[in-house]
Amino acid sequence: MKLAIRDIAIFAPVAKLIELGGVLECCVNWPARILFACIVLITSELNAAPLKVVFVSPGHEKVTSQHNTTGEFWPNVSAFMRAAANDLNLKLVTFYAERNHILMKSYLNDIIAEQPDYVILVNEKNVVDSLVLGLTRAQIPVFMLLNKLSEHELSQLTKAERSYYIGSVTPNNDDAGYRLLNSLLDSYSKHAQADDKPLNLLALHGDYTTPASIERAAGLNAALKNYKNINLVDSTSAEWSKHTAFNKVRGILNKVRVDLIWAANDAMAFGAKQAVQIVKPQNTVLIGGINWDTDDAHYPVDISYGGHVTLGAYALVMVYDMHNKQLPLESFHQQAAIFESSLACHSNTFKQQVRERRFERYDFTQFSYGHAARREFTIANLVATAH
Asked: Which residues on adjacent β-strands are paired with residue 243?
């Protein structure tokens, strides 16, 4: 049975009560003020509020939301975070921006009203302009998830405000974009008859401003430099959306041959797959995405890189360890080697566990520096904690 840190935290005040009871007999002559101080100390332990963390999700609360066209990534990020918060005895409050950056920025006063100990933000659509500045000026510590602040954005903060930008965890998006193209080419060599004709590549980007999108595009461009037989027929933003990708890819396929489709997330890859099935080109079209989304069995992609859906949970572990002064200073800002191919041996196990949506099966306390046998945070190790 999993023994969570929250359970240990509950035992501690009880132990103090027992300890106090054991010494009361020999301390009956203590001055009343000393005895009262002991009782107040124990009472405060019993009534101490859990650490409160606010998370501002750029996405939707539910996978099934009728307005959610960007896949199951953000709902799953939130679900992983709830499971980690339970393990760590944290109070997690989540605001959902529903892919609306104006709505996201409007939450500032609501977040401050929550009086959180920490706030976890995702750097999308210049969130620093309002949320980061507002929160740091209110002296509320901010932790960045998936997209950290750039040097330019940091320059907008005063020294005092910077002191409340406490940490970040990001995946290696450049590497994911790079490896995705290489994997598509490897798969194409196995599925299609080789010839001397250049391969036509279509690239679907999330947007032109989000660091994750920019970094994945940089990885793609770096990989393209290694190949002389690839013709980039189009490189366009599909707004992280399955619907937008479907419309764009359908139009492109009606004009030009496409052999490979590189998509910055799986929702766009699913939309591309749907367009391919409708247009029915005569040639083989291989499609790759990023996220490990599993919600669309009708439009399976050929390969996906994922695992970073879990990093919100790991962010909570890092915040927990920071608060308890256990996280090494050099680990306050981390780039996690979390991306793995859907062809990895444990990816199917992980995706099946996610499909069943029993996120509480994982033991996130095992990734804390407070754990006696701490594990490095990887997908393989997360799968190993499942019970």
From this structure: none
pTM of the model: 0.81
pLDDT tens for residues 78-103? Answer: 999 999 999 999 999 999 998 888 89
Start-to-end Cα distance in the chain? 8
Count the neighbouring beta carbons within 10 Å of the beta carbon of residue 123: 24
SS3 237: strand
DSSP 229: S
The 51-57 sheet, strands edge to edge: 90-96, 51-57, 118-121, 142-145, 165-171, 333-336
Residues contacting residue 74 through CB under 8 Å, at least 6 positions apart: 57, 58, 59, 60
Which residues are within 8 A (CB) of 237 and not within 5 positions of it... i.e. 6 or more apart? 204, 205, 206, 207, 208, 213
Measure the CA–CA gap between 102 and 131, rounded to whole angstroms.
11
**Lookup result for tokens 């191919």:** 341
CA 169 and chain centroid, separation: 9
**Position 27, amino acid:** C
Q: Are strands 340-341 and 303-306 parallel, antiparallel or unpaired?
A: antiparallel
Q: Mutual orientation of helices 266-279 and 242-253 as an angle, nearest 10°?
A: 40
How much is the average pLDDT of 291-311?
A: 83
Burial call 63-95: b when 16+ CB within 10 Å, e when fewer: beeeebbbbbbbbbbbbbbbbbbebbbbebebb
H-type helices in 25-150, by residue range?
32-47, 73-88, 101-105, 108-113, 131-137
Query: Which residue matches tokens 């754990």?
Result: 371
- Main-chain phi, psi angles of 260, to 5 degrees: -130, 140
Closest CA to 217 of 196, 201, 194: 201
